[in-house]
Amino acid sequence: MLKVLLVEDEDLIRRGLRFQMDWTAAGCVVADEARSGEEGLEKIRALRPDVVITDVRMQDMDGLEMLERGLELCAFDAIVVSGYSEFDYAQQAIRLGVVEYLLKPVDFNDLQRCIQKIMARRQRDSQGQAEASPALSLDPGAVSNRYAAEMLRYILEHYAERISITDLSQKLNVSCTHLNAKFKAEVGYTFHDFLNYYRISRAMELQKQGNLKMYEIAEMVGFSDYKYFNKVYKKYVGYPPNKSLS
Fold first, then answer.
1. How far apart, in whole angstroms, are the C-alpha atoms of residue 153 and residue 142?
2. pLDDT digits (tens, 9 = 90+) for 173-182
3. For 28-67, how does the pLDDT look when each residue is reduced to its tens digit (9 = 90+)?
4. Which of 5, 90, 102, 165 is positioned for an S-S bond with 191, CB 3.0–4.6 A?
5. In degrees rounded to 5, what are phi and psi of residue 103?
């Protein structure tokens, strides 16, 4: 499973990248997001992401400078998105080893192909080690820690039910604190945060179908309290669920 960092100073675009792309189907999780190049650099230092997706033009530090400085801290794959098609940006991106240079508005099929390219190369480089397949749903078998893998599997299979980390603590006979630490080290989220993140991602997929009421969707993804669903949805997406996704 690849940890992705999104760096984009426009809130609407950043939230669109986070929630309109099916990251779990691509074997990825958005570990965090940043609103500026400086913040992005700090998150690269803290998270050590596998993939950084960044805008070019930002106020304090442009995306290419952030990538150049970030690559001195740790290795990652980079995808640049920009509203500008000037050749010099593309040249700089190529020099930095950027996987792809995508123009806004981002075509999510193109972004999916970029992720698949990264996954395929990492599979080749791993020389047969377990990796998440880009064409399949998120695979707990790609998670190195067995407790984190079990927690991820539990969320994917039971997210629509009433579950908590206490259930797994009792099942695995391991403390909640230890489980959360292992899970966050692998995924970048606590168990509870990733459960909500995954539930909201599934809710947005159901919302796109256009034939379900929001309270029905809330129940289908594991929220018995509709007001709480609204609160969590807005926290992760940035706007309430009754707002159009377009």
1. 11
2. 999 889 988 8
3. 889 899 999 999 999 999 988 999 999 988 888 888 899 9
4. 165
5. -90, 145
